Amino acid sequence: MPEMLTGWVHGNTITLESSVHPLEGKRVLVRIEPAEDSEATLTADVQARLWQAWAERGPQGPIEDEGEPEIP
Predict the structure, then answer these.
(1) Which helix H or strand E contains 52, and what residues bound it?
(2) Given phi > 0 = left and psi -120 to 50 = alpha, else beta, which region is 11?
(3) Which DSSP state fits 48?
(4) pTM of the model
(5) Tell me, what DSSP letter sits at residue 12?
């Protein structure tokens, strides 16, 4: 019986809400469809982790302000 998990798509990367240890390292078939309540499942903890990951590895690299003037 297939297991159904939810997660988020970021470019060509899919981040699941939980790991799937029995399938680790195995080839899988992934069916992609929007979740009905995708915004409702985004907890504060998950959102904080996603923001932290984006700040560290965003599209242009880490966010740094060293040597830059402060915005008043």
Answers:
(1) helix 44-57
(2) left
(3) H
(4) 0.41
(5) T
34 three-state secondary structure: coil
Strand partners, 32: none
| CB crowding 26-57: b at 16 or more within 10 Å, else e | eeeeeeeeeeeeeeeeeeeeeeeeeeeeeeee
**Separation CA 55–CA 53 (nearest Å):** 5
Distance (Å, whole) CA 2 – CA 13: 21
CA distances from 15 to 7, 42, 68 (A): 5, 12, 33
Residues 23-64 pLDDT 10s:
888 888 888 888 776 555 677 888 888 888 877 776 666 666
